[in-house]
Design goal:
The chain is an alpha+beta fold. The protein is globular. The strands form four sheets. The chain has a seven-stranded antiparallel β-sheet with strand order 1-3-4-5-7-6-2. It has seven helices and 13 strands. A hairpin with a 2-residue loop joins strand 6 and strand 7. It folds into two domains: 200 residues, Phosphorylase Kinase, domain 1 (2-Layer Sandwich), CATH 3.30.200; 102 residues, Orthogonal Bundle (Transferase(Phosphotransferase), domain 1), CATH 1.10.510. It starts with 20 loop residues before the first helix and ends with a helix.
């Protein structure tokens, strides 16, 4: 197995999770949803075709129905260098295109951002963490171990699952995923680029077919092809070792939290990333991650040894 070493400057700072200051600074924007769901056979065209450029310039008071001004200028931004496809202009608007995925902790919607001056467009995945009243918190306790907060009042609120504490936890999930995605993306780990964070809403790189607005399939949905599975296994090993070299494990790794786009493997759903040594259960989460992913690859005829992968990750994480 190859060894990976990343600069420890990319390690998570526990201050990223100490309160909901980021949520208070940038409350999640309210957005109108013009299309309730994205369907493969949905004939509704994009507002402007992806990649198209138009000479028409839109004034703020002429925004299309259902559109909202881009929140990029007042949001927290992803790491530099910012990819060229990201629209950073304040003269841009967003249009909701529907639901991509629903989950217990968050929903993912498809958003099209349009630059008013040039007509340049980009599709983004909007991950919106559920409110304190509508989220499932049954998994929080184990994952949050090892994430310190500075204020004892907030720690007590989180431990007692008060309404304030639940909101703190929601803010932690969003901030944790945004921070981790930025660090891993900068380190070359295959994750979506985090464009911005506003409150408990993340706008992320859309992984999928832009022309058809179809999200990339999960690893579990890929056809049975032993050669393709072997290649994806090598990519998966590299990604898991890269996480280990940074001191972390995914925490919920499975063939349902991995996307495959044009033969490239991409890890998703990383709010629960676990510190291997800071979390008392870190090595247990690692062993479970390795068992889950190795079981799937073994069912595709790949020689995937969970115990060996676990040892390799621990070795990669050791100083």
């Amino acid at each position: 197995m190859p060894r990976f070493r990343f600069d420890r400057r990319h390690d998570l700072d526990t201050d990223d999770f100490d309160d909901i200051d980021a949520v208070r600074r940038h409350p999640a924007p309210s957005r109108r949803r013009s299309h309730p769901r994205v369907a493969d056979d949905d004939p509704t065209p994009l507002l402007i075709a992806p990649g198209a450029v138009t000479d028409e310039s839109f004034a703020d008071d002429r925004l299309p129905a259902g559109a909202t001004l881009s929140t990029y200028p007042e949001s927290d931004h992803g790491p530099r260098p910012v990819p060229g496809w990201v629209i950073t202009s304040g003269d841009a608007f967003d249009v909701e295109l529907g639901v991509v995925k629903t989950g217990k902790e968050a929903d993912v919607d498809l958003v099209q951002r349009v630059d008013m001056a040039t007509g340049r467009t980009v599709l983004l995945a909007a991950k919106r963490y559920r409110s304190a009243q509508h989220r499932m918190f049954h998994r929080d306790a184990g994952y949050l171990e090892g994430r310190a907060v500075r204020r004892s009042r907030e720690m007590r609120a989180m431990g007692n699952r008060t309404e304030f504490g639940r909101q703190l936890i929601a803010g932690q999930w969003a901030a944790a995923e945004f921070s981790m995605l930025g660090r891993l993306w900068s380190a070359g780990v295959p994750v979506p680029y985090p464009v911005q964070m506003s409150g408990t809403e993340l706008l992320l790189e859309f992984i999928g077919d832009v022309a058809t607005r179809t999200a990339a399939p999960r690893l579990a949905e890929t056809p049975r092809d032993r050669d393709a599975a072997r290649d994806l296994w090598q990519q998966c090993v590299a990604a898991v070792l890269a996480l280990g070299a940074a001191g972390y494990t995914h925490g919920d790794l499975s063939p349902y939290n991995v996307l495959v786009h044009d033969g490239r493997l991409v890890l998703i759903d990383l709010p629960q990333v676990v510190d291997l040594f800071g979390n008392p259960q870190g090595l247990e989460f690692l062993a479970r991650d390795c068992r889950n992913i190795c079981t799937w690859f073994a069912s595709r005829g790949v020689d995937a040894d969970a115990e060996q992968l676990t040892r390799d990750v621990i070795d990669a994480a050791s100083p």
